[in-house]
Each structure stands twice: as structure tokens, then as C-alpha cells.
TrEMBL record:
PROSITE patterns linked: PDZ (PS50106)
Protein name, as recorded: Trypsin-like peptidase domain-containing protein
Entry's transmembrane regions: 62-85
InterPro entries, A to Z: PDZ (IPR001478), PDZ_sf (IPR036034), Peptidase_S1_PA (IPR009003), Peptidase_S1C (IPR001940)
Annotated ranges, domain PDZ: 314-371
Taxonomy of the source species: Bacteria, Bacillati, Actinomycetota, Actinomycetes, Micromonosporales
Native source organism of the sequence: Plantactinospora sonchi
Region ranges (Disordered): 1-28
Keyword Cell wall biogenesis/degradation among record annotations: no
Length: 411
């Protein structure tokens, strides 16, 4: 040990300071050491520990927890993925819409709903195809007996028809023959060579009111099995129709706003209960010709009470009787108060029996005002022979009334 060097046992220098390779031997370094029990010759102090301190743990538990968590997450993800794939279908497509209860294979509609009425009536509605010298015509009709009688329009059958074919709701066809027709009232009856058919149910056209809901059935514009909806928009709409030099037809019609077009002619107009109340016959259109005519919310149907009566007479006798009042009408009105002037009265006819005379102006028939001669003819045709109607007329300056018993013509 060098002279003057401190004693290693008591020196404040590190015991190995002289051998420290990082020490600068020229720079003395002193370490002040606090006096301790050991340096004073006493025992070493007891280690001090904090009883509240958390015990130190290794990293192994953390690795174990992480591994278990990853395994559980993988298993859950796989299960959910499989479930979504099954629900979404093959190829993993996305399922859209509600997952509620499956709808029934065939939806059921209440019998009194529009769909229920349509389902009940459609099997009785037919398409009528007629061929003749004028080409092929197409219209509609409806079955009225199980053995094949069908009501349609006279203008659907036309004059000089060579043959007719009926197409049913299911697409099947059958030949038909013309039984008879009444051109003035625009009613015809044809007979189909088939039995076991479903006839329509008849309603009462005298019991309907403006605003009642209606459905129109037929084959408009060659579109078979078409149903349109509307209301009764007017009653006893009187007018005459026909081409100059051709057949003149008179209508006291049910007016409806149900969409009716070419091809609907002869099809049924039914009430909210599915009962036939009219025969669709005429449309009102601003078109210049029939080929370009289309629905504008004005269509007209022959009241079924009138059509049924005429059809029954045609089936029973081969022809229909025309109802007449026994007077000819025409000439100018006077006084500007409306009405139809009687030009002559048939001796012994209904008008003469009721006391009407030539020159009288008929103002109302059964409470319905008259403006044109065609109004009187159309309203009279609506009633059956033997019906009693009230007539209000003016003779000179006096208003009078009478009851007239209508009759059938001699034709």
C-alpha cells in the first residue's frame, strides 16, 4: 500500500477504487459515507417493507389472459359469421327487409273487398271476338246462365257477323252463335257451346244512387280480364247515339267515372257487392273518331233491369219488345221552359188513353225533366211494357198531369 494511503478498512474510498479502469488516478474522489450501525461496530439494520404495497408479479399471467381472450373472441366471431351466412343465403348475400313471419302462400282477401269482388266476378266475364265482312271485332260480355247464354252489346255483335268466339277468364275458348238482339237498345244475346259455367249475380239498377262504388269489367284495348273502379256519377243520362244513316240507339244510362275504353263494351258494371247493375256500352270522348277515342272519366252503362228484361225476351222468343208511349214527338218548343212537344198521338195508344193530345208539351216523365225528343224515347224504352208512369205536361198556359200505362209496339 503506498505511503499515506488510507486504510482500506476505514477509508472513505471505494475498496476497489484503485482498480477502477474508468477512474482518473490523478483526480482524487471522495465518497462521504454516513455513519451506520455497521461502521459503529453494531448489527446490520432490518430491511423495511411497505405492508400496503402490491406484490410484484411476473409477466406470465398477463400472457395467459391475453391468449384465452383471443381464443374466445375467435370462437365467437366464427359462430356469428356462420349464422349470418346461413341467414343471408348462399354466397354471403345481404338479407333485406323484415325478418317477421312468412306471408301465406296465397293472400286471402275479404269477400266484400274490391279484390274479393273482382275474384268472384272475373270467372263470369268473357271476351267476345266476332268476324264478318267488316273484319274482326272485339268486345266483352258476361255469362248469365250455366248452359252458356251471354249478354253483350248489339254493336259488339254487329250486323252480318259470320262467326263468334268467346274467350273465358282462364284463357279457354268456345264457339258461340247469336241468339238475338235489340239494336235500338244496344242489347244482344249469344250462346256458347259449353255447360257448367258460372253466371253473374244480378243487382237492382233502380236501387242504386249517385256516389255508389262500382267496378267495370272487360277487355279494353284488347287487355283481357281488366278491372277498373269508380262511382256512379249520374243516373238516367239520356242521349241517342249512332252514325248518320246507320242504326240509332237510345240510352237512359248509368253514368260512371270508372275507366272504360274500346273493348269494354258489353262487359258488366257491378256494385260494391259484386252484383251486375249495368252493361258497359258507350264512352264520351273529345276524340274526332272512334279509333282514337279514349277514356276521359265519362262512361255509360245500360241499366241491368232493362238489359235483363230484353235478354230474357230474346232467349224466350228470339226478339225483344220495344216499349212505347203511343205518341210522336218533335217540333219547336215554345215559352223557353223546356219540355218535348207532341206532334201526333196514336189513336187508342197509351198517350191517347191518358188524355194527351197533339200540341201538348211533355215536361217530365216519372219526375225526370225532358229537354230533347230523344230524352222521352230513351226513358220510355227503359221501362217494361205495362209499366205505369206519371207525365207532367203543359197545354197552353196550364200545367197538367196524367198517368200513362206504357205498351209494347206492334213490331
Amino acid at each position: 500500500m503506498p505511503t499515506g494511503a488510507p486504510d482500506p478498512a476505514t477509508s472513505p474510498w471505494w475498496s476497489d477504487a484503485l482498480h477502477d479502469p474508468w477512474r482518473n488516478p490523478g483526480t482524487p474522489t471522495a465518497v462521504v459515507v454516513q455513519a451506520s450501525a455497521a461502521s459503529a461496530g453494531g448489527a446490520a439494520p432490518e430491511p423495511v417493507t411497505d405492508p400496503d404495497a402490491a406484490p410484484r408479479r411476473g409477466l406470465a399471467p398477463f400472457f395467459l389472459v391475453s391468449l384465452v381472450t383471443a381464443m374466445l373472441a375467435g370462437a365467437l366471431g366464427g359462430s356469428l359469421g356462420y349464422a349470418f351466412a346461413v341467414r343471408g343465403g348462399a354466397g354471403g348475400t345481404t338479407a333485406l327487409g323484415s325478418t317477421g313471419a312468412e306471408p301465406p302462400a296465397t293472400a286471402q282477401r275479404p269477400p266484400d273487398s274490391v279484390a274479393g269482388v273482382a275474384e268472384r266476378v272475373l270467372p263470369s266475364v268473357v271476351t267476345v271476338r266476332v268476324s264478318g265482312s267488316g273484319g274482326v271485332g272485339l268486345g266483352s260480355g258476361f255469362v248469365v246462365t250455366q248452359d252458356g247464354y251471354v249478354i253483350t252489346n248489339d254493336h259488339v255483335v254487329g250486323a252480318g257477323a259470320d262467326s263468334a268466339t268467346v274467350v273465358f277468364n282462364d284463357g279457354s275458348t268456345a264457339p258461340a252463335e247469336v241468339v238475338g238482339k235489340d239494336p235500338e237498345s244496344d242489347i244482344a244475346v249469344i250462346k256458347v257451346s259449353r255447360t257448367g259455367l258460372t253466371p253473374v249475380e244480378f243487382g237492382d239498377s233502380d236501387a242504386i244512387a249517385v256516389g255508389d262504388p262500382v267496378l267495370a269489367f272487360g277487355t279494353p284495348l284488347s287487355l283481357a280480364n281488366t278491372v277498373t273502379a269508380g262511382i256512379v256519377s249520374a243516373l238516367d243520362r239520356t242521349f241517342r247515339n249512332g252514325e248518320p244513316g246507320g242504326q240509332v240507339r237510345y240510352y237512359a244510362a248509368i253514368q260512371t267515372d270508372a275507366a272504360v275504353n274500346r273493348g269494354n263494351s258489353g262487359g258488366p258494371l257491378v256494385d260494391g257487392g259484386g252484383r251486375v247493375i249495368g252493361v258497359n256500352s258507350v264512352i264520351q270522348t273529345p276524340a274526332a273518331d272512334e279509333e282514337t277515342a279514349g277514356n276521359v272519366g265519362l262512361a255509360f252503362a245500360i241499366p241491368i233491369n232493362q238489359a235483363k228484361r230484353l235478354a230474357q225476351e230474346i232467349i224466350d222468343t228470339g226478339k225483344a219488345r220495344r216499349t212505347v208511349i203511343g205518341a210522336q214527338v218533335g217540333g219547336a218548343r215554345t215559352g223557353g221552359t223546356g219540355g218535348v212537344r207532341i206532334s201526333s198521338v196514336d189513336p187508342g195508344g197509351p198517350a191517347a188513353e191518358a188524355g194527351l193530345r197533339a200540341g201538348d208539351v211533355v215536361l217530365k216523365l216519372d219526375g225526370k225533366p225532358l229537354e230533347e225528343p230523344s230524352d222521352l224515347i230513351a226513358l220510355v224504352r227503359k221501362y217494361a211494357p205495362g209499366s205505369v208512369v206519371s207525365v207532367e205536361y203543359r197545354r197552353g198556359s196550364e200545367r197538367q198531369g196524367a198517368s200513362v200505362t206504357l205498351a209494347a209496339d206492334a213490331k
